[in-house]
Amino acid sequence: MAQKYRIYINEKVILLTESEPKNKENYEKIDAEVFDLKIIYTWAIARKNKLFYVVCGNAKAFLKTVAKSVILIEAAGGLVKNEKDEYLFIYRNGKWDLPKGKIEKEEEVKVAAVREVEEECGIKVSNIDEKICKTYHTYIMRGEVVLKKTHWFKMRCKRQDKLKPQKEEGITDARWFKKGNIEPIIANTFPSIVDVLVKEELINARKESRTKIQESGYDG
User: Fold this and answer.
1) Sheet strands (E) in 41-191
2) What sections of the chain are H helices per DSSP?
3) Under DSSP, is residue 132 helix (H, G, I), strand (E, B) or coil?
């Protein structure tokens, strides 16, 4: 299966792919031979299009090359669910988001993910499950183009009504949302967060499918 990676620039997406994307008429193509994220960042921001793609022989290797060309920051965060199957979201800089933050030097990725979630929401994580995915988004920091690589994990905790959003980090609200009531989140969040939600749903669907197969007694 052809590998694909997405680099997010605010509301825009650059797809690194080993084959032409479906509905490619909705995308604007970027030549892999001249791809330079420092230049592409400003260029993409100025374009009306929101979707771009780069065809490369090895998407993973291409992404590594891109990461080496700019400042790379690694972060970790979580999609937290409580015993009522509600999801925890934060509100920061006018957008709904998921709690996350920078991994400290020599800190384990899972440890960082739990620490950031607990610090930003004032909760106690009771369990951290498997990794959901990694996302990549780029922005300007002190005049330099930065690529942030974020590791996302499924987490569990008991519902806490008195959430404490970390205001010094620009978080003005933190709330629990029922799965069926996250339309406000989808309408006002980043594409990378939607990606996390979609991939978590796929993980759940695969688990449910495996459970049904096991319960049916089918052993292959």
Assistant:
1) 51-55, 71-81, 86-92, 95-97, 100-102, 127-141, 144-156, 171-178
2) 37-46, 59-68, 109-121, 183-187, 191-216
3) strand
Angle at 11 between CA 27 and CA 20, to 5 degrees: 25
Model pLDDT for residues 164-203, shown as the tens digit of each residue: 999 999 999 999 999 888 998 999 999 999 999 999 987 7
Q: What confidence tens digit (pLDDT) does each residue in 13-23 have?
A: 999 999 999 88
Please check whether residue 118 is in contact with residue 141, taking contact to mean a CB–CB distance below 8 angstroms: no
The model's pTM is 0.89
How does pLDDT run across 133-143, given as a tens digit for each residue? 999 999 999 99
Contact 140, 41 (CB under 8 A): yes
Is residue 40 within 8 Å of residue 13, measured between CB atoms? no
Structure tokens at 183: 């339309």
**Rg from Cα positions in the chain:** 19
pLDDT at 210: 55
- Dihedral sign for Cα atoms in the order 174, 162, 166, 130: negative
